[in-house]
Amino acid sequence: MANSNLPRRIIKETQRLLSEPAPGISASPSEDNMRYFNVMILGPTQSPYEGGVFKLELFLPEEYPMAAPKVRFLTKIYHPNIDKLGRICLDILKDKWSPALQIRTVLLSIQALLSAPNPDDPLSENIAKHWKSNEAEAVETAKEWTRLYASGA
Amino acid sequence: MGISKVTDELVLMVRSIVGAEYSNMDIVRALHMAKNDPTAAINIIFDTPGFRKPEIPKKPEPLNRNLSPEPATAANPSVNGTDDHDSKAKNQNLKVEDARCSSSNGCSSSSSMGSEWWLVGCGEVAGISTCKGRTLKPGEEVFFTFPVERKSSSPSPGKSGGGRGRQVSSSSEIVRFSTNACGEIGRIPYEWARCLLPLVRDKKVRIDGHCKSAPPVLGIMDSIILSVSVYINSSMFQKSHQASLKAASNDESVIHPLPTLFQLLGLSPFQKAEFTPGDLYTKKRPLNLEDSFNVSAPLLPIPKFKSQSTLDGSKMENEESISDNDLDKIVGVADSSELLEMEPPSTLQCELHPYQKQALHWMIQLERGHCLDEAASTLHPCWDAYRLADKRGLVIYLNAFSGDATTEFPSTLRMARGGILADSMGLGKTIMTIALLLTHSERGGSLGNQLTAQTLTGNGEASLISDQSPTAKKAAKISGFEKLLKPKSFLTCGGNLIICPMTLIGQWKAEIETHAQPGTLSIYIHYGQNRSRDALVLGQSDVVLTTYGVLASEFSAENADVTGGLFSVRWFRVVLDEAHTIKSSKSQISMAAAALVADRRWCLTGTPIQNNLEDLYSLLRFLKVEPWGSWAWWNKLVQKPFEEGDARSLKLAQSILKPIMLRRTKSSTDKEGRPILVLPPADIQVIYCELTEAERDFYDALFKRSKVKFDKFVEQGRILHNYASILELLLRLRQCCDHPFLVMSRGDTQEFSDLNKLTRRFLKVGQDIVDGQARDVPSLAYVEEVVEELRKGEVGECPICLEAFEDAVLTPCAHRLCRECLLASWRSSTSGFCPVCRKMITKQELLTAPTQSRFRIDIERNWVESSKVSALLHELEILRLAGSKSIVFSQWTAFLDLLQIAFSRSDIQFLRLDGTLNQQQREKVIKQFSEEDNIMVLLMSLKAGGVGINLTAASNAFVLDPWWNPAVEEQAVMRVHRIGQTEKVMIKRFIMKGTVEERMEAVQARKQRMISGALTDQEVRSARIEELKMLFA
Known about the structure:
The complex is a heterodimer of chains A (153) and B (1033).
Chain A: H1 8-19, E1 25-29, E2 36-42, E3 53-59, E4 70-73, H2 103-115, H3 125-133, H4 135-149
Helix pairs in contact in A: 3-4
Chain B: H1 2-18, H2 24-33, H3 38-47, H4 61-67, H5 71-75, H6 87-106, H7 113-116, E1 117-129, E2 141-145, H8 163-169, E3 176-179, E4 183-187, H9 190-201, E5 205-213, E6 223-233, H10 245-249, H11 257-264, H12 277-282, H13 306-315, H14 322-331, H15 354-368, H16 373-376, E7 383-387, E8 395-399, E9 405-406, E10 418-421, H17 429-439, H18 450-459, H19 482-485, E11 492-500, H20 505-515, E12 523-526, H21 535-540, E13 543-547, H22 548-556, E14 569-576, H23 588-595, E15 597-598, E16 601-604, H24 614-623, H25 631-643, H26 648-657, E17 661-662, E18 682-689, H27 693-716, H28 723-738, H29 740-744, H30 755-772, H31 780-791, E19 808-810, E20 816-818, H32 819-825, E21 831-833, E22 840-842, E23 847-848, H33 867-882, E24 886-890, H34 893-906, E25 910-913, H35 919-931, E26 937-941, E27 956-959, H36 966-973, E28 985-992, H37 996-1012, H38 1017-1031
Parallel strand pairs in B: 10-16, 10-17, 11-13, 11-14, 12-13, 14-15, 14-16, 18-28, 24-26, 24-27, 25-26, 27-28
Antiparallel strand pairs in B: 1-4, 1-6, 2-3, 2-5, 3-4, 5-6, 7-8, 8-9, 19-20, 19-23, 21-22
Helix pairs in contact in B: 1-2, 1-3, 2-3, 9-11, 13-37, 14-37, 15-17, 22-23, 23-24, 25-26, 27-28, 30-31
């Protein structure tokens, strides 16, 4: 099992995530696989995602922390940097990954991305176009989606 | 009894004429009809066509219900529902069968009533008349009317509340009797009604009666003596062995109807249950000490078992195995001298000691099912044996606790195939097990093994291969295993599965390879990431070795759609090595072990009980020793009484264990009274060391500080809330006894002599860069902060491994990381980004930070021997001359670090074994230590060396610091003093005088007593506080 050879670093990170969770973020490892985390991020205030609870999955690959974790939104979200499969366009998850980053910092970055969508570096062309052409309407759609898919659950 | 006796004689007389096809009941009825005239009775039988069909037309409706044999049940072909595994029970059933066969010859239509109902016995009931002016002649038949059960307020048979409540509730419990001639005559007393009612309702029992004596003319409340015969329906035994949880969890005051009825009938068991609820609940009846087969328990005073150890403690001469002794008191030592020996097969390539041959014989016997004669014929201590009045000579066993009845002999050994080999450490449990593997190994559930297959089917644990129905997967009968109840397509047949702690895998493999003739046992190691999930692969090997960790993880992964693994195999045999690993019954490991499907199960452990009697429960559950595998039973009959201080529960536990456990100790003797194993003697000494003056000052200062903190907790009454902090305080004190450096390393300030130099160099590097790219240079303030941090010896952690720095380096951007972590994050070996700020840096630019050791001071340069280290070196020096190898145990790897310095300086060759090594490295170390003559010492952390490892190459062991649990210490030391050891063994424990270590010795001794004693939660709490106070006294 993956669990038996879990690196100390992952254990430590997990313990800290559980003991001192970052505000608006919860991440807990799956019982079966300690490298797999169930994540919940609260939509940041003053963003179109406010009031929403977004579920994500996070997986630490074998090479972690030398390789970035794999993160994906499970909850549908209307965001220019997140596609319909929930994949996230974020540099630190790709070429800007550094082993000094942690699960916590990654999730905080994602939370920040919700506050500040970046339509210039889009993953979802349509949404980005929408965002650029009519931001007010796009924000409304994002709010609508938040209410539809990310409330309660 | 007069009438019933006459009746018996008459019945015999009539039977001799009419033949066996008529049951006692028929004949009795005919006699009644003929007013006890045998000739008339015979005429009635022969003249009435289909006489057996009861035709009593005048009988009122309710009577009919109770009296007439139930056609439905009578037609039931399976009269004897007992699924017997027991030869004794078989015989009885044969008799029943005979009776039934012959009767069906006579009248095939509906004839089996007689064999369906077994006469339990006859007795007298003092009924009370409820009528006036009616008459009842002696000998006249009476019929009983039982009240119809009322749904709303169904009377519970056991309720016996006094006063008005009883009056009301019992109105529906009145059993009346009547005659054909007069109608209702009277009612029978409550005590009879109460136990008859539920039994008659469930059609388990029926009762016939006639008047024995009554006043010529009846008045209200006149007493009428009835003579009754009680019959029991054999269908009651169809589900004989369902030790019902329900019964066990009932209120303790429940009166079970059947035993009560037996009592009322004046039946007394010909073999009494050794334990009855009365014993446990009232504690009144003194135990018959002479009868008890195991004499150690009576030594225990009541009610507190813990005082027993103190009592015995004074008698104990054998210092060597204190905990062994206690254990023996609890579980009993088998008088093994009587056991037969069995020669191992020639494929075992070593000579077995006689006691090992005995173990082999014992194990093979247990596996065969018809276990040791003695075990099979030992009545389960909770059961009474009754001989029924029935002519067929039936024997019924009643469980005094649950009221369950069975016709099958309830021996102490039920269902379990296998047991607990609990020989104390060093007697060679591994080799005995290997002998067992070689003597008999097949594949689980193989048809060649009929006996096993049958029994297991009866057990419901697993069924024949040909019957791999979904229901067969009942191995997980323990509640909470829903996921295992999932239908499983089928189980692969597997060989032997051995589960052991990780450290022992290599040893098992090595021992099997050394002792089994090559080619006889194929081994597969089921361990590691890449292990096969394919059940067929697992099933192929004769022996599969795995760890408890793998077992637990495959168990918890079971709900995933992973097929394969340990749970997809039906094992021929499962062996748990160091089986006390599963002792806590709620742990994953324990549940996982119990859920394995296997034909034979063995526990190997030198300590079947480590802390509590409860430890046993887990083993019994794994072994499927029914009914003890169910918590309700165990808790009710053993655990709870034990916790309440009833020593009899211990005796019960012993009698459960007796047939399934073999335990010998090093001091056990054979038939001739010689010790079974002659080991070279072991000399155990305690070396008391004095602190040097400097050490004493340091220790006292530390102690004073700790005591102030402790006293504050005491004052606040919050000792247990601060348990962790107190243990931390103690830890420092204990480490101080080993070497003050250990405490200093824990953040006590220590100036770095070269720190200023470092700052200068560091800032100089900064300046060099200023010329080029000014913006990348860390600010002066930042650098100063970093340096200050270093100066203060702040712990800090590497941002990559999140651990304290190991061989820390400083980047030009003033970030601190472990050298290895940083280099590993680079793609190239010479340069890369700083993981923290992404600045490009080269390997040359890195500075070595001065915190490379876990000690804040340069211990190599400032090396000082603590007095304990000096004492150890002195001892080792002597041994070096003799060429004798030693093992040095400490609990702290940091102390092992220090000892390495000391050994290097003294030129002592050593190896180290601690928890950081993986399995292969461990094996390598042990091998090297055993084979290379120049290596004198093995440094070992107490935990890593705890289990199984064979280190007989060494003949000396040094325990440098006392451990809370003496059993752990003992286990470690016994790695040396075990079979295979040829030299005299010397064990030395180091204790610093006048320190916490000395007080810990006292606590250890106390703990020894507590291990065996039953303490309540409250007592444990106060005991803990007591202990802590002792330490800070």
